[in-house]
Amino acid sequence: MRKRFFTVMAAALVVSGIPVMAKETSTEEKISEAVEETKDSTEAESVVSGNEDRISEIEKQIHDLEKQIAALKEERKQLRESNVAEIGDVIYQDESVIITYNGIKEDEYGDGYSINFITENLTDKKIIVQYEDASLNDFMFYAVYSANLAPNKKSKDEIDMYESDDEYCPMEDLEYLEFKVAVLDGDSYDEICISDPVTISFE
What we know:
The chain is an alpha+beta fold.
């Protein structure tokens, strides 16, 4: 009887020990999983950081190429026998912006036209580009032109001319447009620079 009692007790001890071992094993697995997750997360962050560095490098190369393209367009313009502006001509470039002539478009209602431009921000901060002291065929007028540009972005903008404007010049009478390019800080509105007169010839 006593032998059977000890046998039963021993079996009970063995059985009661099983959950404890399982619990310890489960804890070890959780720790191991947490370590692996941390490792994977660190590796992922490293990859993301590497990607961001490469993206920044590519964007800088693109901007450098665009500057070179703008310089080639200016050289092409100078080599042409005619000074008449063509779509794609770079009309102004400095360290902050590139401005490209984008043609003349008649208003859809037939009561005017727009002189179109593409402006590119070459900086890593917000800027505003405006035209000052504008004139058409030597007649001064107020050019409502203001391009608000985020860092390293482009925008399509225009100068609108309507028949109802006092300064209106019919499209067929256009000879040249002249203005100064003013670049302002996009946050403080302080003037960064202002150019010498820029001239676009239409004939």
